[in-house]
Design brief:
With 278 residues, the protein is α/β, with parallel strands linked by helices. It has a domain at 7-92 and 116-141 and 198-272: Rossmann fold (3-Layer(aba) Sandwich). 42% of the residues lie in helices and 14% in strands. It contains eight helices and eight strands; from the N terminus they run βαβαβαβαβαααβαββ. The chain has helices spanning 16-28, 40-47, 66-79, 102-124, 150-156, 163-179, 191-212, 240-251, and strands at 7-10, 32-37, 57-60, 83-88, 128-137, 218-222, 264-265, 271-272. An eight-stranded mixed sheet has the order 3-2-1-4-5-6-7-8, with helices on both faces. α3 (66-79) runs parallel beside α4 (102-124), α4 runs parallel beside α7 (191-212) and α6 runs antiparallel to α7 (191-212). The model has no long low-confidence stretch (mean pLDDT 93).
Length: 278
């Protein structure tokens, strides 16, 4: 046991909230912190922002690229044999003024935010150690009430829903976006909302699966708040440090913690009803 090298991974950790989460983990986590970026250049620039000896390592990982996911998974397996914390922070959002066709935005946003997170988890979950903590960074946009269609919301709440059926739902949206029928089918007109509702729902299903296997692993979704980052065009009223507070808290839940577990957590660390009002 003494030879186990503990590892915390923060995807999208080269800037913004992810960078701030990694900084806090470097201070508080008893082990190695690994941030990931989409390129070697991004990694190198991120590491320059750390001073002293308390630095993370960095590895290339583009969550929308299955090849890099598999390469990163091998890196973790070969060098650490497992991991103890996984913060799925990487994601993307189109600007309001984006000119790309809606169908293109739907494909890229859901592919990255939902399927990218899903695929990273599929690759890394088999290596999670007992008492591991998984934090899926969602958003206030990821609340179920953001989906306009009542019948569609019921599908997300169906007790028989599993990860495979959820992925089918996400692909349905992509298909409807191509035909322009997404709004009339109850999805609304925000690709980001759909992607983050998917991330939130995935979190709860993951916890359900771990519980069924009696695994001592905790998964939570978190809304980090409206943070001043490139993604929000620096209009957010919270600093990246403030946005990192709740995700870091969830990542460092102690081994004997029983809650929060399989919940949606707000930026002030309170638990909110995901299926209730937005």
């Amino acid at each position: 046991m003494a030879d186990i090298k503990r590892l915390a991974v923060v995807t999208g950790g080269t800037r913004g909230i992810g960078l701030a989460i990694a900084r806090e983990l470097c201070k508080q986590f008893d082990g190695t912190v690994c941030i990931t970026g989409r390129s070697k250049e991004n990694c190198e620039k991120a590491l320059e922002k750390y001073e002293g000896t308390n630095k993370p390592i960095c590895h290339v990982l583009d969550i929308a690229d299955e090849t890099t996911i598999q390469e990163f998974s091998k890196f973790v397996a070969n060098n650490y044999g497992g991991l103890d914390v996984l913060v799925n922070n990487a994601g993307m959002a189109y600007k309001v003024a984006a000119t790309e066709p809606f169908a293109e935005q739907a494909l890229n946003t859901v592919k990255t935010n939902y399927f990218g997170t899903y695929n990273v988890c599929k690759a890394l979950f088999p290596m999670l150690r007992p008492h591991a903590r998984v934090v899926n960074v969602s958003s206030s946009a990821g609340m179920l009430a953001k989906i306009p269609g009542e019948s569609l919301r019921k599908r997300f709440l169906d007790p028989s829903l599993n990860e495979e059926k959820l992925s089918v739902l996400m692909n349905e949206f992509i298909t409807l976006a191509k035909s322009g029928k997404h709004a009339e089918e109850g999805w609304g007109n925000s690709t980001y909302v759909v992607s983050k509702v998917g991330v939130s729902a995935l979190s709860f299903l993951q916890q359900k699966a771990f519980d069924a296997e009696n695994k001592e692993i905790i998964v939570n979704a978190v809304h980090p708040g409206y943070v001043s980052t490139d993604m929000t065009s620096y209009k957010g009223h919270l600093t990246i440090e403030q946005g990192a507070a709740a995700p870091t808290y969830l990542a460092l839940l102690p081994p004997n913690a029983t809650s929060p577990k399989g919940q949606m957590i707000w930026f002030d660390k309170t638990t909110v009803d995901w299926a209730g009002s937005a």
